[in-house]
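$ run holo --ligand "2-deoxy-2-amino glucitol-6-phosphate" --emit tokens
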Amino acid sequence: MCGIIGYIGDKPANQVIFEGLMRLEYRGYDSAGIAVLDQGKIVLAKDVGKLRNLRELLLTNFPSISSQGIGHTRWATHGRPSTFNAHPHGDCMATLMVAHNGIIENYMKLKHSLQSAGHIFKSETDSEVLAHLIESHYKGNIEDAVLKALAQVEGAYAIVVLHRDHSDRLVCARKESPLIVGLGKGENFIASDVTAIMQHTRRVVFIENLECAIVKRDRVDFFDLAGKPLERKSSLIDWNPIAAEKGGFSHFMLKEIYEQPQVIRNTIGGRTQEEDGKIFLTELGLTGPDIFRTQRIVMVACGTAYYAACVGKYLIEQLVRIPVECDLASEFRYRQPVVDRNTLVVAISQSGETADTLAAVREAKLRGAKVLGIVNAKESTLTREVDGLVYIHAGPEIGVASTKAYIAMLTAQVLLALLLGKIRGTLKPEFVQETIRELKILPQRIEQLLSNTAPIRALAEKFKDARHFLFLGRGINFPTAMEGALKLKEISYIHAEAYAAGEMKHGPIALIDKDLPVMAIATNQSVYDKLVSNIKEVQARSGTVIAVACESNCDIKNVADYVIAIPDCPEILTPILSVVPLQLFAYFVADLRGLDVDQPRNLAKSVTVE
Ligand code: AGP
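-- output --
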């Protein structure tokens, strides 16, 4: 997620802003910039890479007397990391600057119409559209121009705007992406999170969704996006700085679980046109002939990414009708894989630096296969070695146990399967439109799940001392069971394994007794009755079963010992919702066991060695 900061007061703006950006470094970024207003002129410094590069620029030709400015650290989504893609972005004549966090979904349409009106763009980003849109509405009143511009924008944003005609104010606004105002004495601040400004003030106003603010040195006025004035109360932040980095959550993992609704919006952002069922994966790098020539797909990944690939197998085989194999990258690289120019290899990786996955990609390319990367980290090694890309836009994932990246990988694969199915003619347009509609509702469904985690915490309390756990799933949720087992074992150190529920009678059922709790993912309707039989087999041997089931299922409470309900959704999307209770269950168990949730023993966030 990008970092935003704005300052207006009596101190040197570049210093306050630079220090604030330093405090946002933990969020991860690939470029940064600062713009200040100095005697009616906007001065801009931005650079790719670490903030120390920006410091060099600031030390050379940057006015230190300016006391009004904005700054930004960028985690690239649209447009590669580069100086010209770094924020802040200006309008044609640099009369104003904008820093933005979020995704403008309709930016292509807006950009084309602004370009036809003569606006000259300097970057590849969606964010720059905001600067030109505000410019196109500006007639002397900056807040009015900002509101008019935002009325045309679809998508998520947190923005701060600096205009050369207005040395007495900054304007900011938010839709979905977080933004706060920090209240000082004779100075005020704007930031994407409290960490950036805590050393100056702990009195803040959390800007609510669809609100804006005019921030002056001695006052702040709040409005809704229609311009109606609002009364807003401030809060006093009593978090310590580390807690602030976690946004008040006790662990990054929990914060990232709660970020998942926004992550899905970011993964989808700008890539679908619901009305005509269009999917845009602009960096796919595969031509129509490549896609038609593909006779099979081999997916390679490690850990959580491998389980995401296993869900992808079900999605692609069901929607695209191409055979899909999933292979652990560490196995693929040594088994002299049978791949050729008619094989599409799909490598999935959050970090894009996993040694085994990189080696698998190189092996696949040596054998003539096209390789597509599904990746989170921009400009990572993997992104430079594949033929095409689908970025998952999960933002930096700090917790070693992957959560939001997994959800983003699944969401990206739904988009990929829909696109490939459309191209190969295996999907009806109405199915694609309906699935896009359902995908866009998922964030609210996850928010509903996250609004009441008490039942899951209670189950964690009950089972936190278990020595073993069995996870069962069928069909598209068999990988969900595997991911749930990985979450539990890697952060709570409880031995947990996953089985395809149908496999129980072929051996694992011998394990069942009263000391082996079972988590059954019973959310896919097509095999529900079979899974109920497996649950009963477990109970007949004194096993205890926790079932994850859809809230409309009234039968399951008569079957399982405990039930965790998830909102209903189409079967192909159930892996996205079903994994959230498993993430939370693992988190609560580990936390209750007093373990280091974010940095589990023996684990690294990115396994860059064999
Ligand atoms: C996930 O919770 C683990 N931390 C680990 O299995 C991880 O998924 C695996 O190392 C792959 O990492 P990557 O996605 O960065 O390639």
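-- notes --
The chain is about 35% helix and 25% strand.
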